[in-house]
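Teaching assistant here, posting this on the class forum so everyone can see the example we discussed in section. The complex has two components, and the goal was to see what a joint structure prediction looks like when all of them are supplied at once.
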Amino acid sequence: MKIDLSFNAAQFDDLQLRDKTIVVIDVLRASSTITVALNNGAREIIPVASIESAVKISGSLFGEVTLRGGERNGQMIDGFNLGNSPLEYNESAVKGKSIIYCTTNGSVAMAKSRYARVLIVGSFLNLSAVVDFLSGENKDFLIICAGRLNTSGNFSLEDAVCAGMMIQKLMKNESVEVILSDSAKAAYALHKSFGRSILKMLKNSEHGKYLAEIGFVEDLKICAAVDSVPVIPIQIESKIKLRIKEELAVVSV
Amino acid sequence: MKIDLSFNAAQFDDLQLRDKTIVVIDVLRASSTITVALNNGAREIIPVASIESAVKISGSLFGEVTLRGGERNGQMIDGFNLGNSPLEYNESAVKGKSIIYCTTNGSVAMAKSRYARVLIVGSFLNLSAVVDFLSGENKDFLIICAGRLNTSGNFSLEDAVCAGMMIQKLMKNESVEVILSDSAKAAYALHKSFGRSILKMLKNSEHGKYLAEIGFVEDLKICAAVDSVPVIPIQIESKIKLRIKEELAVVSV
């Protein structure tokens, strides 16, 4: 199994990503928030690349079961129902809802992956579940770290460290032969350098510091909790849903 | 002094980079080859982003003193005078010549940096010279690793390790206070993980393996030789020239 990795999604367009197996990682906070939302009973997440798309799509859907969630500069978008904190996506807010979801980096990477053969969403929260899924697939895959648009060379340390932790866990599975691209090797090394305390790494990261500054320090604890929400968000018919094993059979055909 | 870093140039356009102090690193091979060429007496290097630009520009210049150099897939471009091996850029080939220079990654990153306040070209060959220059400037700067288009997430391990080595050397200079972006911290960590033997790292890198396969294994030794060509290629009026100290005064105004 060859593992390739990109430290951001900026260079991709959706046709380049067609038919690949893709894990999108946006630790702070899209991947974590989607995982929490689906685990709390959200019906589906519809990731979009822009506020314009969110408005267009929600115009054609019924209001009662549809919410709009996401952020710009970490804050809720005007006219939306939810921001981007996993704390907001509790059962009473999201159960049974379709959520049109627009963020600066994560939802853009997911929207670009719309033609993937398999698209799953990975974070520290569901790390081992993602690794088990990828081991079971035993196919080449690409990790797309969402990164941070126009900041630190579009690079997010926390996404790279999370990817590196997945790769390390996969390599422990002796039934899988793993070949790493240079970028995947780099992520593996970054996990070794920065992965001893995930919460400390998040608190010291540029994005983590920014979120703490604007009042979301609690989110860092939630996003650092490895294997706390062991479910897999997976794309089914252009929407991200909770994976149940019956559905995998359909996707794998 | 704040150090920012990008692992590739794909997301930039030239206006974003206006007025910055930039180091472009393309270890294999643009940065190394330019450094060798200027040290061997080339008058100037004119980096361009495409073969079309190279042809257009050379049409308006006199043939005798102008050469076209560069690569596609590591090989010389049809109708060009030189490929991209530093071995080709010896004194008898380049002395006194202007070289229009087109490569897949390095020359594109340099062309995008055309409006920089200061643009210098860095590699292992001139690593300490670049670090001394940046210490003397004592200004915020951005390292652009040229990366590899459409390969390994546009990431080049060798560029990242070279950048990390520069950062490590800069941090040893106690008269300079250094603040690192997350991406610069990552490069620093990658140098720690992979920088023990530069030649071995190059030989194990994807790009290094490819160059060895197509007959350029000697280039790896040349590109791994730290501080072997202690000169600084610097942009002066849209051309890359050998820096001489008198010219710095003009650039810094």
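For the discussion questions: The interface with chain A takes residues 4-8, 10-11, 142, 150, 152-157, 160, 181-186, 189-190, 192-194, 205-207 of chain B (CB under 8 Å). Chain B has a mean pLDDT of 94. Think about how each of these relates to the inputs above.
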